[in-house]
Amino acid sequence: MSRYTGRLPPLNSLRAFEAAARHLSFKKAARELHVTAGAVSHQVKLLEDHLGVPLFRRLTRALELTAEAQSMLPKIREGLDSLAEAVERLRARDEVLALAVLAPPNFSARWLVPRLSRFTSAHPNLELHLASRPAMIDGRDNAFSEPPPEGAEDAPLVMVRFGNGHYPGMVVDEVFSARYVPVCSPRLLEGKHALKTPADLKYHTLLHDDTVEPGIRPTWADWLEKAGVEGIDATRGTHFSDASLAIEAALEGMGVVLMLRPLVTSEIEAGRLVLPFDIAAETPFSFYLVTPEAALSNASVAAFREWLLAESTADRTGSD
Questions:
Q1: Dist. CA 121–CA 245, nearest whole Å
Q2: Minimal CB count within 10 Å: which of 89, 141, 234, 249?
């Protein structure tokens, strides 16, 4: 609550006084404020009448501040600076673009976030709100009624979805297709039962990511059939309801997990995970960037769409 309960003097008179006090000249203050010297003198007189004290001693060729003016000048200058700063902050806020992005949890954590600094660095005025949602996987109920991230209710919204790509009323761009490969710790390539052929999986624990329904993503049974391996119970092993937990288990050497190749690129490049066999099981599903047609012309949406598709192209090229 403001401590001042009286009537404030006009802003123009305060600005005229501050400029005249800084230059000790009505003419120089007038040039700065783009008015006449007479206008500055008039505004200063209005302030003096309002305060009931003289602010300048008007000498023949100069001005001198009175004791009252010298006392109040620092606070008036401080107040004008604070007002200018507040206006600039408001203008800067108006220039900030906003964008809300919804994406599947594992895609967000393993693929999007490790690259995201390149986007935010290139667009410092874009306020990005990212939320990971399991509903961004086809088969989940009311996926398109998902609320935006908190604080981004008025921002344009785009989605990354894992599904069939059929989303009426939306502009759909494929980010990358779903190719599932087995990955494990490099420790499993050594020892008595080293993974040398797909048949060697019978000696190792199969790790299962149960976050996606069968039919949407391949199971171990699908992969073993693709690899031509028989005699292994594809349901045995350890099951996880979170894909990140399944990856962590693989990193710890607990077993072998089927995972989307682009989501484990960084771990493979760092040598924390390896592909014991370059055999992929595929599904008709892919990751898609899904943009409402009405939002396509929005500057923040266009910038994110261009960046994301460029990143996915670079990722596919690097994996070839």
A1: 30
A2: 141
The pLDDT value recorded for residue 90 is 59
Percent helix / strand / coil, the chain, rounded to 5: 45, 20, 30
Domain span at 135? 97-175+285-319
Q: What is the pLDDT of residues 131-158, one digit of tens each?
A: 988 888 887 555 566 777 777 778 889 9
- Nearest CA to 120 out of 94, 101, 105 is that of 101
Q: Please calculate the CA angle 173-282-262 and round it to the nearest 5 degrees.
A: 60
DSSP string, 13-75: HHHHHHHHHHHT-HHHHHHHHTS-HHHHHHHHHHHHHHHTS--EEE-SS-EEE-HHHHHHHHH
- Looking at the fold, whether 199 and 274 belong to one and the same domain comes out as yes
The β-bridge relationship of strands 281-292 and 256-260 is unpaired
In a domain, 6, yes or no: no
Which residue among 70, 94, 118 closes a domain?
A: 94
| 3: in domain | no
* CA–CA dist 247, 226 (Å, integer): 22
- Tell me, yes or no, whether 60 and 129 share the same domain: no
Task: Give the separation between CA 155 and CA 158, rounded to whole angstroms.
Answer: 10
Those residues whose C-beta lies under 8 Å from the C-beta of residue 179, and which sit 6 or more positions away, are 260, 261, 280, 281, 282
Please check whether residues 182 and 304 belong to one and the same domain. no
Query: Which has more pLDDT, 154 or 170?
Result: 170
Looking at the domain assignment, is residue 5 inside a domain?
no
Which bin fits 198, alpha (ψ -120 to 50), beta or left (φ > 0)?
Answer: alpha
**Sheet hosting strand 97-103, strand order edge to edge:** 126-132, 97-103, 157-163, 281-292, 170-183, 256-260, 206-209, 238-240
End of a domain among 50, 71, 94? Answer: 94
- Minimal CA–CA distance to 66: which of 80, 56, 79? 56
Reference 288, options 167, 178, 179, 175; nearest CA is 175
Give the number of domains in the chain: 3
Residue 2 lies in a domain: no
